């Protein structure tokens, strides 16, 4: 049982055991993204595709590094990372309130870091670490739950002040999933659901006018086809007009004639579905399905609760990106500004997703490791 | 420890499986939604995408020309140079407009209008600064182009009438469609589009207009044109050929000069109008650009009514030109024969009233031919009394008087031929014999238009055929030009021998030294014409005035002077043309109208297509004359 824990595998062994098929799936998905960014620039690598490729290369390297690092390091680093991210988020909030408006990133010179993106991973790490230390029945006790609740609520409170409703919702849902996996009781979810339902009318008062407008628009986009409903309507037109087989690469009229807004970021899925039709869209969803399934599969195979929770939490996070983005461009969810992972143009999201997969791979490489509740080998 | 770990793993597996199942369900829902959008609703969204992308732009067709009977253009399209400004290429619109104003005058109001329009429109949409530029201005703008960023010159079309004033009433003019003209045809709503407002332009507007082309443009989200996808060139409007001879028309206008009046020359076989002049006239080109309020008022308030087409809408007492109708009524009724004479002492007494002849001391014994040649009034008092007003009216109507002649341009009036029934119905009192006498010399209630007088003359000299007038060679059928069907006009049913008597008498008016228009006869060898003078009183001459001597026309205010009339035909041997001349308040028919008629008739005979260009295809020339060449 402990046969494995004693012999520390070398980097070489780890590299050999790495699930390269997952890496291949990731590269494949990202390549589809490059093609779409090339198309979004009317058949040019500039300004998006070329920069995205270089970012992806850096991200891929980082992913591999993260994957090779011992899972116990991540376990021990969970709380510090969480603390650091929370501090960054607070820093952005303070800088924002100094007078730069709703600024959501830190300028690190070579790179603009959006702490709210990294925060999602930090929350998953911290919650995995927390629930790792409890049995299922202990974890479900209320006195053991107030700390993880704080872990989730603190970043949500900061993100909401920015205000970034999308990220706040994602963090809440990821946190909820972690509670669900970690051992929270069903009735507790019932109470929270009831509480949220009761809080909605109150929360409504605190929403910005543009956020309210987005929700109204989402509920009835045809009401205001030239105003706020424009984005959703044009996106649906682009999707629908793509039909079964699409209009062909570089032939999307809606996107190339600029009827489609934000086609290189949030609405890139629409562009893909316009140019490659239902076949292309469903193909990409299937690819995402494979990536998510792979993460879940790894979670099932892990022996330590931390790795299980981490791999599953990261998969859920990835799923949420995919689902919210696609549902948004198809008019099922309001426009909240969630990127399509690995495909949308943007640095932080790409990096976050790749680091997430790096952690999932670390879980895979260290799947048989028994870790005690303090973080050492069992 | 192990069992607790196993508990934890089982719990995790159970809950993670549920979560994974939920995710799978949601992804499947996405696929379902995609299927709905991209397959079920695809058609609808495809249409919406095309609507987004494709902009139809109408290409206005060239308006058809209007040509005279020899093919000389009288209404054409001229290049219309417009200055446009595009704000996206102009760093400082206001400054550029100021610089532009140094080349072409732009006043403050205009500048404000332009700036407002620029603000309202997208920055790549050109705004018209000025239309109808002179060529010199265009040249100066071209030279200064480097200082005028964003200013472009564009060429459109505008209607132009090279001899506009000469034929303004025939041609009419074009103007922007009014609200009530809009039929939903988008062509009418194009800026700068003009439709026919009056005359031939209006009557033939449909065929002249042509069919609009369309250009399918691909536009992006802000409306900028990316490329042209498809273009269908429209059909230019059809040319309309008139029966009018522009040279004669201009000459007639010249002969009328400053007088206010009209000349109508008609082909007696076909009814085609060779001349249809009306003075004073106006410049139809002014209407193309749009009249200012003061220009419009000046035209509308002028007592000489330049906007009225007097040839078809001027109604005048025919005076002595009506005498042929009365004579024919008497001949046809058998009241007189060609040899019947009456004695003219200078007046006729009826009850208490005394009806005067224009010649104070009378004509003595007068037969029918002399009564026409010397225009004896008493002769007509006598026969009118014998025939009665209703028989006279019946004869007048057969000759087209008091009727609608269905001319192919709008604006025709029908005049008035009184009957007993008419007077009872309209005036409300019974007819009295005195009124018959007055009608007998073409005065009183009788009103005719110059066009009707020309038709009357034509029917009298063409063997009694019921010709109708027209101005264009072709007709409009369901919006298209169609060839005029050559129908043989039916007879008006008057004894040709009686018509012959009238024609001979009319010849004597000019040929006989005692004829009223002898002085105005054609002296050019080889040409001849016949006619009848008329002088229509527009005021009542009182008994006292008659005793003291009738006031001479020149001593009266213009408004009260007599109308001068003349109807005629030529040549005498084989009548081809009928003419009518009316000079409003011009004085005597013999001295004022007859010379104009002579000059115009002489030129008409000189310009007869059979003489000028034998065998040529000339508008309005059908039947016998064409066969004869």
Task: Describe the structure using short key phrases.
heterodimer; A: 378 residues; mainly alpha; two-stranded antiparallel ribbon; 2 strands; 70% helix; globular; disordered N terminus; B: 629 residues; alpha+beta; Penicillin-binding protein 2a (Domain 2); Beta-lactamase; 2 domains
Rg of chain A, alpha carbons: 21 Å
**Oligomeric state of this protein:** heterodimer
The CATH architecture of the largest domain in chain B would be 3-Layer(aba) Sandwich
H-E order of chain A: HHHHHEEHHHHHHHHHHH
Major sheet of chain A? 2 strands, antiparallel
Helical residue percent band of chain B? 25-40%
| CATH fold group of the largest domain in chain B | Beta-lactamase
Helical content band of chain A:
over 70%
What's the domain count of chain B? Answer: 2
Number of individual domains of chain A: 1
Structural summary, described in words:
The complex is a heterodimer of chains A (378) and B (629). Chain A is mostly helical and 378 residues long. Chain A has one domain (22-365). Chain A has 16 helices and two strands. Chain A has helices at 3-6, 11-17, 20-40, 49-68, 71-100, 115-132, 136-139, 146-161, 165-182, 186-206, 209-219, 230-242, 253-256, 268-301, 305-329, 347-365, and strands at 106-107, 112-113. A two-stranded antiparallel ribbon of chain A has the order 1-2. In chain A, helix 3 packs antiparallel against helix 4. Chain A is globular, with a radius of gyration of 21 Å. Mean pLDDT of chain A is 87; it is low at 1-5. By secondary structure, chain B is of the alpha+beta class. Helices cover 39% and strands 18% of the residues of chain B. Chain B has 24 helices and 21 strands. In chain B, helix 9 (246-256) runs antiparallel to helix 22 (589-606), helix 13 crosses helix 15 and helix 15 crosses helix 18. Chain B is elongated. Mean pLDDT of chain B is 88; it is low at 622-629. Classes of the chains: A mainly alpha (378), B alpha+beta (629).
């Amino acid at each position: 049982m402990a046969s494995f824990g004693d012999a520390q595998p070398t980097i070489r062994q780890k590299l050999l055991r790495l699930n390269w098929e997952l890496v291949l799936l990731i590269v494949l998905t990202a390549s589809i993204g490059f093609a779409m960014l090339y198309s979004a620039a009317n058949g040019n690598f500039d300004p998006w595709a070329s920069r995205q490729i270089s970012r992806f290369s850096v991200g891929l390297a980082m992913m591999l590094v993260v994957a090779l690092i011992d899972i116990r390091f991540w376990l021990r680093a969970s709380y510090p990372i969480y603390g650091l991210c929370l501090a960054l988020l607070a820093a952005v909030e303070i800088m924002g309130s100094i007078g730069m408006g709703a600024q959501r990133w830190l300028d690190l010179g070579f790179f603009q870091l959006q702490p709210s993106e990294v925060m999602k991973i930090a929350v998953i790490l911290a919650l995995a670490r927390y629930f790792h230390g409890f049995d299922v029945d202990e974890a479900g006790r209320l006195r053991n739950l107030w700390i993880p609740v704080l872990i989730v609520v603190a970043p949500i409170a900061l993100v909401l002040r920015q205000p970034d409703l999308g990220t706040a919702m994602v963090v809440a849902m990821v946190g909820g999933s972690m509670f669900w996996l970690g051992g929270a009781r069903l009735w507790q979810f019932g109470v929270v659901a009831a509480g949220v339902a009761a809080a909605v009318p109150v929360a409504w008062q605190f929403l910005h006018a543009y956020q309210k407008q987005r929700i109204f628009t989402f509920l009835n986009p045809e009401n205001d086809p030239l105003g706020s409903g424009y984005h959703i309507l044009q996106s649906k037109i682009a999707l629908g007009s793509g039909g079964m087989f699409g209009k062909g690469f570089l032939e999307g009229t809606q996107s190339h004639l600029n009827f489609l807004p934000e086609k290189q970021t949030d609405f890139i899925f629409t562009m893909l579905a316009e140019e490659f039709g239902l076949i292309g869209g469903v193909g990409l969803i299937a690819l995402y399905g494979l990536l998510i399934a792979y993460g879940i599969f790894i979670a099932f195979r892990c022996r330590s609760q931390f790795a299980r929770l981490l791999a599953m939490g990261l998969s859920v996070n990835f799923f949420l990106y995919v689902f919210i983005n696609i549902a948004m461009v198809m008019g099922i969810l309001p426009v909240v500004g969630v990127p399509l992972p690995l495909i949308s143009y943007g640095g932080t999201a790409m990096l976050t997703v790749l680091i997430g997969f790096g952690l999932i791979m670390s879980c895979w490489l260290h799947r048989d490791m028994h870790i005690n509740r303090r973080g050492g080998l069992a | 420890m192990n069992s607790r770990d196993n508990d934890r793993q089982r719990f995790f597996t159970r809950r993670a499986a549920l979560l994974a199942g939920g995710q799978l369900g949601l992804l499947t829902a996405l696929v379902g939604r995609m299927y709905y959008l991209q397959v079920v609703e695809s058609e609808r969204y495809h249409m919406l995408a095309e609507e987004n992308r494709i902009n139809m732009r109408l290409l206005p067709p060239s308006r058809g020309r209007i040509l005279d009977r020899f093919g000389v253009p009288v209404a054409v399209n001229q290049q219309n140079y417009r200055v446009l400004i595009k704000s996206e290429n102009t760093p400082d619109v206001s400054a550029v407009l100021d610089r532009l104003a140094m080349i072409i005058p732009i006043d403050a109001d205009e500048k404000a209008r332009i700036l407002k329009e620029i603000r309202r429109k997208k920055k790549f949409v050109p705004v018209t600064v000025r239309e109808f530029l002179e060529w010199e201005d265009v040249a100066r703008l071209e030279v200064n182009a480097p200082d005028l960023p964003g200013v472009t010159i564009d060429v459109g079309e505008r209607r132009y009438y090279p001899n506009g004033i000469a034929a303004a009433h025939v041609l009419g003019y074009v103007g922007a469609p009014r609200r009530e003209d809009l039929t939903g045809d988008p062509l009418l709503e194009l800026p700068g589009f003009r439709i026919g407002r009056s005359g031939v332009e209006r009557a033939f507007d449909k065929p002249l207009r042509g069919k609009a082309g369309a250009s399918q443009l691909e536009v992006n989200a802000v409306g900028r044109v990316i490329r042209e996808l498809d273009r269908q060139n429209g059909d230019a409007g059809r040319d309309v050929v008139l029966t009018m001879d522009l040279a004669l028309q201009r000459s007639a206008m010249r002969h009328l000069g400053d007088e206010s009046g009209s000349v109508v020359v008609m082909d007696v076989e076909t009814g085609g109008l060779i001349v249809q002049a009306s003075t004073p006239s106006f410049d139809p080109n002014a209407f193309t650009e749009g009249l200012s309020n003061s220009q419009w008022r000046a035209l509308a308030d002028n007592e000489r009514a330049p906007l009225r087409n007097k040839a078809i809408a001027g109604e005048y007492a025919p005076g002595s030109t009506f005498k042929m109708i009365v004579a024919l009524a008497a001949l046809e009724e058998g009241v007189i024969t060609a040899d019947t004479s009456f004695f003219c002492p200078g007046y006729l007494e009826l009850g208490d009233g005394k009806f005067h002849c224009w010649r104070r001391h009378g004509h003595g014994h007068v037969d029918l031919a002399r009564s026409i040649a010397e225009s004896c009034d008493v002769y007509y008092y006598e026969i009118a009394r014998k025939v009665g007003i209703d028989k006279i009216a019946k004869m007048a109507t057969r000759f087209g008087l008091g009727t609608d002649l269905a001319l192919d341009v709008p604006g025709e009036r029908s005049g008035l031929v009184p009957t007993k029934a008419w007077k009872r119905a309209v005036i409300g009192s019974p007819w009295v014999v005195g009124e018959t006498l007055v009608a007998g010399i073409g005065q009183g209630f009788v009103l005719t238009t110059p066009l009707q007088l020309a038709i009357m003359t034509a029917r009298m000299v063409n063997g009694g055929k019921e010709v109708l007038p027209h101005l264009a060679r072709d007709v409009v059928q369901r919006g298209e030009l169609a060839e005029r069907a050559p129908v043989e006009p039916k007879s008006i049913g008057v004894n040709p021998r009686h018509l012959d008597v009238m024609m001979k008498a009319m010849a004597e008016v000019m040929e006989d030294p005692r004829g009223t228009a002898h002085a105005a006869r054609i002296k050019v060898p080889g040409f001849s014409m016949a006619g009848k003078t008329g002088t229509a009183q527009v005021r009542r001459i009182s008994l006292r005035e008659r005793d003291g001597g009738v006031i001479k026309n020149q001593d009266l205010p213009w408004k009260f002077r007599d109308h001068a009339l003349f109807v005629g035909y030529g040549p005498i041997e084989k009548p081809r043309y009928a003419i009518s001349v009316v000079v409003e308040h011009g004085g005597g028919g013999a001295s004022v109208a007859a010379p104009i008629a002579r000059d115009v008739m002489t030129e008409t005979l000189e310009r007869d297509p059979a003489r000028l260009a034998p065998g040529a295809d000339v508008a309005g020339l059908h039947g016998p004359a064409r066969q004869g060449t």
